[in-house]
Write a structure and sequence with these properties.
There is one protein chain. By secondary structure, the protein is an alpha/beta fold. The chain is built from 16 helices and 17 strands. A hairpin with a 5-residue loop joins strand 16 and strand 17 (420-423). The radius of gyration is 22 Å and the shape is globular.
């Protein structure tokens, strides 16, 4: 039984116990004792001031972090284990685009769970999988599409890289810096940050070529001519995690044209930006680009893990085989996740969230304009409900994130430079909640 008083997801913050509260401190210590380092980033590099675990040992957290454990979430609200209520400006890494625990998604999952909880992966399908495949084909920003389901965003990138290799017959990949495509081996090779890549990916990097994001078309043409082994180009239409940055005007179109001339498969990573985040169903379509492959995920599942690659039929035909599937997973196109995805797409359409992201986001961007002259602020940029405040140092960015948390706002700082505070709330966030966030930012930025 819930006891957090979270009757709607449209509430303003309420901090009862400044984080980290006593329950969070105790649980953080227990997590550190039970989980491997790295997967629990709450435990790590710098001590929490006075935070003791249940065993009396001091807990640790990343620089600038504050222990806070989620207990419940609804709409744009999150409640922690100490009863504090927050407004989530991360949408759970972009997943909760329709809001946390949307009633339509919960209802769809409950109904599906009463019929079929698990199927047989790539061997035998189920009706929700069929319906979702057809729905995604209808939304795909490319002609004559086919769907290849995945279990995560990184898995979708792996599928795209393999598809490009199979179709082109060339193993080389062109990626850009900065970029974030996941942390599995193939996806990791295309991710730009060396700290993520170097311990694992040296063999893959032998065929991985990289240019600066936004590099002129002439440089792209040059590297494709110089490296004829390149068969796939992987690009984010908007850099998500690593910078929250948009490309120069016309760059995606020019990139697509160069790839088309060189018969290089263009794979666009819309895992973070797809399904309305930037005020369009897909950013590549808004940019006038029809890619060969589109990776999507995060918001698609409404909170459940599912992803997909949408691709041109002629490219996807490279997967045809008389044997078993060459890329699969036990939980691929999971019935509960497919049901959740169908409900999520319904919500995005019926609540007109794509248009709402654009209109509400424009208003929020105007409210951020006074911050541009604050000490330490080097840039403010955004579109729809994806915004970035870039600071002049990682310490200032993490301090801002921590100060916002104490005001009941969850926003993450990081990126390749460690200097970007990203704001990517649920698309259902209310005007009142966004106004509160903008006012809090005006109060704390520059402190």
């Amino acid at each position: 039984m819930r006891s957090h008083g979270l009757e709607s997801g449209r509430l303003l913050p309420e901090i009862l116990t400044p984080p980290p509260g006593p329950r969070a401190r105790a649980m953080a210590g227990r997590l550190e004792a039970a989980e491997a380092p790295g997967i629990n980033t709450l435990a790590g590099s710098s001590p929490l001031r006075g935070a003791l675990s249940s065993t009396g040992q001091k807990t640790r957290a990343p620089s600038g972090a504050t222990a806070m454990l989620w207990a419940e979430a609804l709409g744009s609200n999150v409640v922690d284990v100490d009863g504090n209520r927050y407004v989530d400006l991360t949408a759970g890494f972009g997943v909760a685009a329709v809001g946390h625990r949307h009633p339509a998604v919960v209802s769809a999952v409950r109904e599906q769970a009463e019929q079929l909880v698990h199927g047989l992966g790539d061997v035998y399908a189920h009706p929700a999988r069929l319906e979702l495949a057809e729905r995604l084909c209808a939304l795909a920003p490319l002609p004559d599409p086919r769907v290849y389901f995945a279990v995560s965003g990184a898995d979708a990138v792996e599928i795209a890289l393999k598809t490009g290799r199979l179709h082109s017959g060339r193993p080389g990949v062109l990626a850009f810096d900065p970029a974030y495509h996941g942390t599995t081996l193939g996806a990791l090779a295309a991710t730009s940050r060396p700290a993520f890549r170097e311990p694992f990916t040296r063999p893959l990097e032998e065929v991985l070529h990289r240019l600066p994001y936004g590099a002129p078309a002439e440089r792209v043409q040059e590297i494709l001519e110089r490296q004829p082994d390149i068969g796939t180009c992987l690009v984010e239409p908007v850099i998500g995690r690593e910078a929250t940055r948009w490309p120069p005007p016309g760059w995606l179109e020019a990139l697509a044209e160069v790839c088309r001339r060189r018969e290089v498969v263009l794979a666009v990573d819309e895992i973070f930006t797809g399904f309305g985040r930037c005020g369009a169903w897909f950013v590549c379509r808004e940019a006038g680009v029809e890619p060969d492959l589109v990776c999507c995920g995060k918001a698609l599942g409404g909170g459940l893990p599912i992803a997909a690659v949408l691709g041109r039929k002629e490219v996807m035909d490279a997967w045809r085989s008389d044997g078993e599937a060459r890329h699969t997973a036990t939980f691929v196109a999971h019935p509960l996740a497919c049901a959740a995805a169908l409900a999520t797409l319904d919500v995005i359409e019926t609540e007109d969230l794509v248009v709402r992201a654009r209109t509400v986001g424009d208003r929020f961007g105007q409210a951020l304009e006074p911050l541009s002259n604050r000490p330490g602020v080097t840039d403010i940029r955004g579109q729809g409900l994806l915004w970035a405040i870039e600071l002049d140092s990682p310490n200032r960015a993490h301090t801002l994130s921590r100060n916002l948390l104490h005001r009941g706002l969850i926003a993450l700082a990081g990126g390749a430079s460690g200097t970007v505070l990203q704001i990517a709330p649920p698309l259902v966030i209310t005007a009142e909640q966004l106004d509160y966030a903008a006012a809090a930012l005006r109060d704390v930025v520059g402190e």
